[in-house]
């Protein structure tokens, strides 16, 4: 082991020791940003090379989450805005995402995959890959992985309200009755993540400090951690530092 690896290992051990006995997040949501910038910095003419490397890195994150006791991870792979990219960039990205779904659901993996997003906005091949991954992993008991593809926070809330209205209309509820009784729990019960705990910690890589519509409803009480590291370079120590930062905060749900 070289000096650099030795120092890195010692620092990782120190971080783990600092986390011992601390309150850690049950649900981690992550915006894996910076793939294209990483590809350009690495000298690739085709930015999809960054997406390929970033996709391969997802399994590492899930291993780190499993090791630290995280129960649920939400990974934003493709936003609704991303669907407006030129076809020469979008089509390879969609193929990479289908490959991610296949990899995470492959035999021997212990993760349960759940797709979140608006499937009607996606090509049929992408929808089929995500659905197949859900079906293959439905009975697994390990870490739950929400794969957010074709996802937008505003669209999710609109879909939830639309579904709620249709459900109540089918039950014979009038608009006047619904207006008097509807509350936040009614809407939450129709979100893509219904039945799941809201994220305790939201991480964004690449240095950008904005949510961009990620889990708008669910993140109202989340803690946020913004990391300068581009996603393909995100290391275990970066993840452990995010957990250490989370553990050091006093969560105040009312403000």
Description:
The chain is an alpha/beta fold and 255 residues long. 47% of the residues lie in helices and 13% in strands. The chain contains nine helices and six strands; from the N terminus they run αβααβαβαβαααββα. It has a six-stranded parallel β-sheet, with helices on both faces. α1 (3-19) packs parallel to α9, α3 packs parallel to α4 (87-104) and α4 packs parallel to α5. It is globular and about 70 Å long. The termini are far apart.
Keywords:
single chain, 255 residues, alpha/beta, six-stranded parallel sheet, 47% helix
Brief summary:
This protein has helices spanning 3-19, 35-41, 48-67, 87-104, 124-137, 153-170, 175-181, 184-188, 236-248, and strands spanning 27-31, 72-79, 112-116, 144-151, 201-204, 223-226. The mean pLDDT is 95. 47% of the residues lie in helices and 13% in strands.
């Amino acid at each position: 082991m070289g000096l650099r690896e030795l120092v890195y290992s010692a620092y990782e051990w120190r971080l783990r020791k600092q986390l011992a006995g601390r309150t850690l997040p049950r649900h981690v949501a992550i915006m894996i940003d910076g793939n294209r910038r990483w590809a350009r910095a690495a000298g690739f003419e085709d930015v999809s090379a960054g997406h390929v490397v970033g996709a391969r890195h997802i399994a590492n994150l899930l291993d780190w989450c499993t090791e630290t006791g995280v129960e649920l991870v939400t990974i934003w792979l493709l936003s609704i805005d991303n669907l407006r990219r030129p076809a020469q960039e979008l089509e390879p990205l969609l193929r990479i995402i289908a490959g991610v779904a296949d990899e995470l659901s492959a035999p021997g993996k212990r993760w349960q995959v759940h797709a979140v997003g608006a499937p009607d906005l996606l090509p049929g091949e992408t929808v089929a890959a995500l659905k197949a991954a859900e079906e293959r992993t439905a009975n697994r008991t390990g870490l739950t992985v929400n794969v957010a593809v074709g996802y937008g926070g505003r669209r999710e809330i609109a879909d939830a309200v639309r579904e709620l209205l249709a459900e109540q209309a089918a039950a014979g509820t009038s608009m006047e009755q619904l207006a008097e009784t509807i509350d936040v729990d009614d809407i939450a019960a129709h979100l893509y993540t219904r039945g799941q705990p809201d994220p305790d910690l939201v991480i964004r890589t690449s240095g950008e400090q904005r949510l961009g519509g990620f889990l708008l409803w669910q993140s109202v009480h989340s803690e946020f951690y913004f990391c300068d590291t581009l996603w393909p370079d995100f290391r275990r120590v970066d993840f452990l530092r995010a957990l250490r930062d989370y553990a050091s905060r006093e969560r105040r749900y009312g403000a």
